[in-house]
Write a structure and sequence with these properties.
By secondary structure, the protein is mainly alpha-helical. It has 2 domains: 34 residues; 55 residues. The chain is 79% helix and 0% strand. Keywords: Membrane, Transmembrane, Transmembrane helix. InterPro entries: DUF4229, MFS_trans_sf. Pfam families: DUF4229.
Length: 95
């Protein structure tokens, strides 16, 4: 029995991985004073905000195939649910 993760699970993990990688890279740049640090105790928030701004467009470009696979998986599930609903409605009409 092999475990094959769903497209949503893979996409989420990859997106999280890109965010964590961006966070670590930006944290290193702030640590070595290549980028400015936040004011007072806001350094963590500053690094997280920069990582979010960097990882979002990066994910949009890099994860295109995974996003398309996720869209196909969701569309198939919606179609199956519509078919089941239509079948249930036709059974109720036959009574």
């Amino acid at each position: 029995m092999s475990f094959t993760p769903s497209a949503a699970f893979r996409y989420t993990l990859m997106r999280l991985g890109i965010f964590v990688g961006s966070f670590l890279a930006i944290w290193a740049l702030v640590y070595f004073r290549v980028l400015p640090s936040g004011l007072g105790s806001s350094n963590l928030f500053w690094v997280m905000l920069l990582a979010l701004v960097v990882s979002a467009p990066l994910s949009w470009v890099v994860l295109r195939k995974q996003r398309d696979a996720l869209a196909v998986e969701v569309a198939e599930k919606v179609d199956r649910a519509k078919e089941r609903l239509a079948a249930n409605q036709s059974q109720e009409d036959g009574v």
